Amino acid sequence: MSSGPPKTPTPAPPPVLTVRALMSDPALGIELVLLAGEVGLDRVVKHARIQKSGLALVGHFHGIVPTRIQILGQTELSFLHRLSADDRRRYLTGFFRLGLSCVIITQAMHFDGDSGASVMPVPELALCAEEAETPLLLANDRSSISINALHALLDDRLAPRIRLHGVLVDVFGVGLLLVGPSAIGKSETALDLVMRGHRLVADDAVECDYRPPGMVFGGAAELLRYHLEVRGLGILNVKDLFGVTAIRERKRIDVVVSLVEWSKDTEYDRLGLDDRYHTILGVKIRELMIPVRPGRDMASILEVAARNELLKNAGHHAAREFFGNLEGALLGPGQEGAPPGYGDRRQDESAVLPPVGPGPAPGRGSRPPSAVPSSNAAAPLPGRPAHPPRVAPKPPESGASGPASTRVKPRSH
What we know:
nine-stranded mixed β-sheet, Rossmann fold, 10 helices
């Protein structure tokens, strides 16, 4: 089996998002209205978290990150409304001179009692934003709703990304990322898993992105979506061949399966006591190294690996439980580390059965041995031959010689 060197991961460029794209994104879920600063709509947002700038309104600008979205809610607006016009002008001018990406105010409009029209409670906001060419946006929703919607969108659009060479499949709900040298059999194994009812996510190029708190999701590149390459067959459309149940758009990566070419000179893990990890975008993901050789059913092995991962997530580690029981058996009863109740089981298994053989003849008035309860009686252990039961000797027939106590006298009429 020939195989080439593994391909190195392709880092994606740092994600950026312009204010113009933010306003027109249909996944945002809230409506943003431009109030001022149209010239600066092409400024970029580089951080996935917003910033509330309360202290900046009194001239304290330490900690302000210009490439983060700034939020001014009802609390900040009510504070500005109580200031004099000169103070508002001075503080807002210094605030907008920081070169901010954009400023979003929430629930800022109120209705004038005389005209009935909606007006800004702090008119200096629009004036200072226009002078600094900083986009000033209005969200009619509450601050909490607006912040949640912005965080959800920014987490997706600004998530760290990387492109990996491999195959991602969903097996029993467990995301298995198959990595290894070219021509090792990743795509063929994925095809076998799809024919067993599992789902293909991506082949050849897996687009990975980070999601808080510490998760990595994978999907297919746009041009390669639903397609699988098998040497000898060419490019296959899995969705057309097996239906929509055979594909999945995205899946969390739970286990990295590193396929390596089998070598008799290499030691492979045969116990499974220690966990290996593979780091993707700073997240440690459990890794399995599986050797590939002719005759091995890789699809069945990966199905068992997915089931075993589900057991580990439920708190059952088969290898550690087995070696824990084995250690307790070797330590013996009463030793530190032995499992509870182990000494009682050892005592029961080592019970000695009474010897088997002809016993003394029962005397007059005595019960036969078979009727005497024995404290040493025990059931035969599995795998050991059962001892024959001890039977009381039969009394001799009439006229036969034997002990006087065992003769049967004829009844007199």
